[in-house]
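Tutorial, part two.
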Amino acid sequence: MVDGDTVYFKDGRKVRLIGINTPELDHKFGKHDAYAIEATQALTELSGRTVYYQSGLDKQDRYGRYLYYLFDKHRISISSQLLSKGLGYRIAVPPNTQYQDCLQKSEKQARDKRIGVWGQALQWQPQAGFVIARVTLTSIYRNRGGWWLDTNRNLTINIPQYVMNQWTPQDVYSLAGQLVEARGWQHYRKNKQPDKAKWVWQIKHPNDLIPAE
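Running the prediction step on this input gives:
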């Protein structure tokens, strides 16, 4: 077991579960994210000795990990079970977006109960890695890099060009001025132009960028 969303098969395959991102284990210093240990333990128990798997349309990621939907011995989605326990966040990375409805329902169960990761406020933090938070959009524009949605933080949301077909221009512009809830991976912008936000947050699917309730 690597962490709550990554596991080794007996034949050596390193598998990344599709549709979920769990809190990170710090293998070097032991400064684990909250619920990282619980997510890892739960994945160990749920996978047991036998799992069924279904490959995603994208079969491997840039790290060489196999991208699979995993199911326990009863053929129940392991990602859904982790989400319903509040041990991770649903994610959508095209083209591997099958079962999103199921994953959304499972996450909502934990969110409504405010258990696990949902016991904490969704406050934006200037840090690299996966982020889920609420921000207000202040301006929207488009160029060769895709859509760029400036926010009331030192942060710009980017919808990359290769996934722009997931949205219509009307979908994007309708978010102008709104408080939105977003989730995705954030990185520090290296070219430090004074008029540009220092953090870029990449969003790849409409399910991960919605008006806040």
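The two ends are 36 Å apart (CA to CA). In part three we will examine how such features are distributed along the chain.
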